[in-house]
Design goal:
This protein is an alpha+beta fold. 22% of the residues lie in helices and 36% in strands.
């Protein structure tokens, strides 16, 4: 009983039933043709016959440009790449300053600025020696004027404290015309293939005069900063005020087969940071650095708060080459799609598209139940054991059951 309930004593096998019908035959080959066409198109479109290897990459950059600018409290100065490039920004990145706040400072006492300082009315409102991570110095305990209407607690610090208002328009807006050369070396270790974005056919004279252009010169490795920002769908004059982050994407989609050999870089650009000031507390990008000097025996410093654009170079890609193993795997995985034709036609025959008689006839021919042929006696009559000498198997069969007959002994014949 458990064997029957759990279907453990049953075996299912496929049975081939040929239905001679013009409509079903035409529909079968039509569906098989569509599936074959789909398999071939996807194989060629996605190049499923190839073995792939991801790219390994290194990037170096070199920025060039000179700007003549006027900085408040300093005057007219000329900045070159050393001044506006800023500190090292990380792997595959470079920074270009676009705006700056300069403050000449020396050690002394001055009112703290709001909102970092505490607004006060008398000296009792200020605590001597108090400081925290938001203050620019240590409170002296005095309440002094910040402006005509407000008073804040005095601090010992580098004075005067930095002005928080960044200039508009940006002081280094001319950085739009700076250029950067991006050198990208790639390698596909599985195929032992090495290449770089400075193509072999390029000469030194070609590099000196070329500027990247998506339509006219898409493979030149020298980029104008203003073009990079515009390709990212941004305005340089706007992003230069508070700074931002721009991504330079280099995509290598290489076919290393001899007939269809192709391995060229494709550049794209996008902004990576949140540009809306009303959607983020700290928009843009900035950092500070100082230059120290001794004037009349007193140490002074010039504090620079630099706003600018950080460019992150990101390299993606893969290389493919024909592989018979990948082709066999793809073909084997797609053969199962032909089962969809059988499933659809079986469903079609089982629906109301055919008569009840045709549906029943097809079902009876497709599914058949066979019982196991076990040998047993058709019937056994009472026989005295003492008289029974031989039991002989009959040659005849009846409905899968073997017939046996009892043969009397010699004693019976003598009676």
């Amino acid at each position: 009983m458990p064997c029957t309930l759990l279907n453990l004593c049953e075996y299912d096998t496929q049975k081939l039933v040929k239905i001679k019908n013009v409509r079903l035959g035409s529909l079968k080959w039509t569906l098989n043709g569509v599936i074959l066409m789909f398999i071939c198109i996807m194989m060629l479109w996605n190049k499923e016959y190839q073995k792939y290897d991801p790219v390994q990459s290194s990037v170096t950059t070199k920025v060039k440009g000179v700007a003549n600018i006027t900085i408040p409290d300093i005057g007219e100065v000329v900045w070159d790449v050393v001044d506006y490039s800023g500190p090292y920004q990380g792997r595959n990145s470079f920074f270009v300053a676009t705006n700056v706040i300069v403050t000449n400072q020396k050690q002394g006492k001055c009112p703290e600025v709001l909102p970092h300082g505490k607004q006060c009315q008398t000296d009792k409102d200020c605590e001597e020696g108090l400081s925290n991570q938001l203050n620019h110095g240590v409170q002296t305990g005095a309440c002094v004027k910040l402006d005509i209407q407000k008073k804040t607690c005095e601090v010992t610090a580098w004075c005067p404290i930095e002005n928080k208002r960044n200039p508009r328009p940006a002081i280094l807006a001319s950085a739009e015309n700076f250029t950067v050369m991006i050198k990208n070396n790639i390698r596909f270790p599985a195929f032992n293939y090495i290449r770089r974005n400075i193509l072999p056919e390029m000469k030194e004279t070609d590099l000196k005069g070329c500027i990247y252009n998506r339509y006219k010169n898409p493979y030149c490795p020298i980029f104008r900063l203003g073009d990079i920002v515009s390709e990212a769908k941004e305005k340089f004059s706007e992003i230069a005020v508070e700074g931002g982050v721009i991504g330079i994407q280099i995509n290598w989609d290489c076919d290393l087969n001899h007939i269809f050999h192709s391995c060229l870089p494709k550049y794209s650009f996008r902004r990576l940071d949140e540009k809306e000031s009303n959607r983020t507390l700290y928009p843009g990008l900035n950092f500070r650095f100082a230059r120290y000097s001794i004037v009349n025996g007193e140490q002074q410093r010039t504090l620079f708060k630099m706003y600018g654009i950080r460019f992150d170079v990101m390299v993606f890609g893969k290389a493919g080459k024909f592989s018979i193993i990948q082709l066999i795997i793809y073909i084997g995985s797609t053969l199962s799609y032909y089962a969809l034709t059988t499933m659809f036609l079986d469903w079609l025959i089982g629906t109301g598209c055919y008569s009840k008689e045709a549906k029943q006839n097809y079902t009876e021919r497709k599914f058949e139940v066979i019982q196991d042929q076990e040998e047993c006696f058709l019937c056994v009559s009472f026989v005295d054991e003492d008289q029974l000498r031989v039991v002989k198997k009959s040659d005849g069969k009846y409905n899968g059951l073997r017939l046996y007959q009892a043969v009397p002994s010699q004693t019976d014949f003598n009676r």
